Q: What sequence folds into this?
């Protein structure tokens, strides 16, 4: 029997499977690289136009001073990274950024605030931003930390399209990265967002010192959520000076590509986003990620506080690869 015949089905009764076992996910990671990429590319083609890439822009609407201790994050108040705590941006300044993102080709505008969880009075200000950005004809996404079910419902009533809340890594490795909130806290927020009827954006970070089996655990957890996240951002660690992960060893880019491919196969109908870390990625690695089923990127010179390739460089790369922005 050929290796491709050993790959488990990706749908059950016409729907993406959400009963992926760790053994199955581990077996995908263990496939020969060409077989894995070939299968991921097939799944990509079965579900999307592979020449289209969805483009999102991410703006930090409230930077720094976060009380959480996520070991990769320059915005945590617990680390000396040179990122200063700022106030929540004004509505007009946010809308000006959203107009510029739209003019640059973005279809989704994501707004991130460095909070443990939003205060209700701040949530109202974010709701004004969501309404204003939507009125420009952009999809909206926010990431504000943990949410109660009431806060999720409030965001739904103001028209929010997506809420981002990452699982970051496997349940087993999580405690090495964050101690100020639990894995279950994250799952609870995801449940509140889903129950409110908001699309879920949820993924993780590769290269934080996790073992290969932690990548298996992360993907298996994401792919066995009751409903797959509509967007799955896969980040490569950006090693920021002053954070506890600043000296972590770089990972083999092919291991990153494998993670993208396994995310594509196990969550066939989700947008798999090639997120942080592209600044340090070669064009060849990014091209392999697109081949492996990544179909979304963050676009713009900054991702919250860390650098991202400039717009011209990204457009030149998409052009070179014959890819175009999804409407
Ligand atoms: S990742 Fe988010 S919650 Fe964690 S420290 Fe950074 S801003 Fe705070």
A:
């Amino acid at each position: 029997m050929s290796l491709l015949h050993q790959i488990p089905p990706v749908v059950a009764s016409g729907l993406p499977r959400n009963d992926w076992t760790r053994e199955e996910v581990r077996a995908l990671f263990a496939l020969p690289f060409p077989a894995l990429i070939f299968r991921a590319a097939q799944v990509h083609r079965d579900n999307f136009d592979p020449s289209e890439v969805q483009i999102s822009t991410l703006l930090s609407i409230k930077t720094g001073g976060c009380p959480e201790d996520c070991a990769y994050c320059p915005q945590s108040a617990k680390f000396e990274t040179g990122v200063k705590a700022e106030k929540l941006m004004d509505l007009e300044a946010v809308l000006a950024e959203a107009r510029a993102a739209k003019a640059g080709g973005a279809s989704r505008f994501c707004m991130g605030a460095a909070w443990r969880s939003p205060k209700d009075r701040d949530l109202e200000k974010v709701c004004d931003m969501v309404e204003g950005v939507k009125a420009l004809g952009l999809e909206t996404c926010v990431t504000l930390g943990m949410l109660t079910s009431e806060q999720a419902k409030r965001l739904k009533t103001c028209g929010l399209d997506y809420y981002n809340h990452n699982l970051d890594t496997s349940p087993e490795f999580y405690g090495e990265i964050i101690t100020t909130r639990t894995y279950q806290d994250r799952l609870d927020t995801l449940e509140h967002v889903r129950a409110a009827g908001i699309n879920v954006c949820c993924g993780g970070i590769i290269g934080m010192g996790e073992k290969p089996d932690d990548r298996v655990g992360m993907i298996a957890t994401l792919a066995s959520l009751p409903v797959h996240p509509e967007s799955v951002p896969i980040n490569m660690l950006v090693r920021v000076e002053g954070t506890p992960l600043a000296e972590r060893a770089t990972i083999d880019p092919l291991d990153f590509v494998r993670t993208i491919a396994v995310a594509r196969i196990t969550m066939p109908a989700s947008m798999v986003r090639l997120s942080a870390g592209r600044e340090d990625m070669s064009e060849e690695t990014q091209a392999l990620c697109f081949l492996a089923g990544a179909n979304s990127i963050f676009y713009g010179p900054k991702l919250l506080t860390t650098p991202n390739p400039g717009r011209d460089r990204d457009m030149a790369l998409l052009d070179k690869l014959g890819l175009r922005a999804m409407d």
Summary: The chain is about 35% helix and 15% strand. Residues 66, 68, 70, 73, 75-76, 114, 145 surround iron/sulfur cluster (CB under 6 Å). The first helix runs from residue 22 to 29. The radius of gyration is 19 Å.
